[in-house]
Design brief:
The protein is α+β, with helices and mostly antiparallel strands. It has 2 domains: about 80 residues; about 140 residues, Alpha-Beta Plaits (2-Layer Sandwich), CATH 3.30.70.60. The chain has a 4-stranded antiparallel β-sheet, with helices on one face. α2 packs across α6.
Length: about 230
C-alpha cells in the first residue's frame, strides 16, 4: 500500500538538520572527552618522568658525594701511610753514632778523617711514558704491596767523607775495608790530591758511600762496634 507523507518539506528538512546537529554535537563531545583524556594521560606521564629524572639525579648526586668521600679517605690514607713511613724512617735502624764508629774502626794506620757528612733523600719511583697504562695494575696491587712497602726503607743515606793519608795504598785499603762492611755499599773515590801540611807531604782524599738499605744491626752488634771504636 502506498504510504503518503503529508508533512511539509520545510518540516522534514528542519528535523533532519536538527538530527544532524545533535549527531555533530555528540561527536564533538566524544572527541573532546578523548582529547581531555589524552591530555590528562600525557600530563600524568610527564609528571612521572619528571619524578623519575629527579630520583635519578638525586642518586647520581649521592653517588658523586660517595665517590668524593672515598677519594678523600684514600688521600688521607696515603698521607697517614706516608707519615707512618717517615716516622718509621726517623727511628734509624742504624744510629749515626754506630755509623761513625764503623767508619773510624775501619781506618788503616796513618789515615785520619777530617770531615764527615751524612745526608738523606727520599727515593721516588721513576715515571715512564707508559706509566698511565700501568696505573690499573698498580692500583690493583696497592693493598698487597702496602705491607711490603712499609717494611722497606724509602730513603737512602749518603755518606761523604774527607781525610788525609800517607799514600794511595792506604786509601785503597780503606775503600776495601768499607766495601767489605755490611753497613756500606757503593764506596767510591771522588778525588785524591797531594798536599803539604806542616812541611810534610800527604794525600788528601774524598770518598762517597751509601748506607746499605738491608743493614739491620742487633743491639749486640752496635755495642761491639762502639766498644771497638772506644779502644782506638
Amino acid at each position: 500500500m502506498l504510504k503518503i507523507n503529508f508533512a511539509p518539506d520545510e518540516y522534514i528538512q528542519k528535523k533532519q538538520s536538527l538530527r544532524m546537529n545533535r549527531l555533530c554535537l555528540v561527536m564533538f563531545v566524544f572527541l573532546m572527552c578523548i582529547l581531555t583524556g589524552m591530555f590528562v594521560l600525557i600530563k600524568f606521564r610527564q609528571r612521572t618522568i619528571v619524578r623519575e629524572v629527579a630520583e635519578v639525579n638525586l642518586m647520581m648526586q649521592q653517588g658523586a658525594e660517595a665517590i668524593q668521600q672515598l677519594e678523600e679517605l684514600q688521600t688521607k690514607r696515603k698521607m697517614m701511610m706516608k707519615a707512618a713511613l717517615i716516622t718509621a724512617e726517623l727511628i734509624e735502624p742504624v744510629p749515626r753514632s754506630v755509623i761513625l764508629a764503623s767508619l773510624t774502626n775501619n781506618l788503616p794506620g796513618g789515615v785520619s778523617l777530617t770531615q764527615l757528612k751524612l745526608s738523606q733523600r727520599e727515593l721516588k719511583r721513576p715515571v715512564g711514558s707508559n706509566d698511565y697504562s700501568n696505573k690499573f695494575e698498580a692500583r690493583k696491587s696497592t693493598i698487597q704491596s702496602d705491607s711490603e712497602t712499609a717494611a722497606k726503607r724509602r730513603t737512602e743515606t749518603n755518606v761523604e767523607l774527607e781525610g788525609i793519608a800517607a799514600s794511595n795504598i792506604q786509601v785503597a785499603a780503606y775503600i776495601e775495608r768499607l766495601s767489605g762492611s755490611s753497613l756500606f755499599e757503593g764506596v767510591a773515590l771522588v778525588h785524591s790530591k797531594q798536599r803539604t801540611i806542616s812541611g810534610e807531604k800527604c794525600l788528601e782524599f774524598k770518598l762517597t758511600a751509601m748506607l746499605s738499605r738491608q743493614a739491620e744491626l742487633t743491639r749486640g752488634d752496635m755495642v761491639s762496634i762502639k766498644q771497638a771504636g772506644s779502644r782506638l
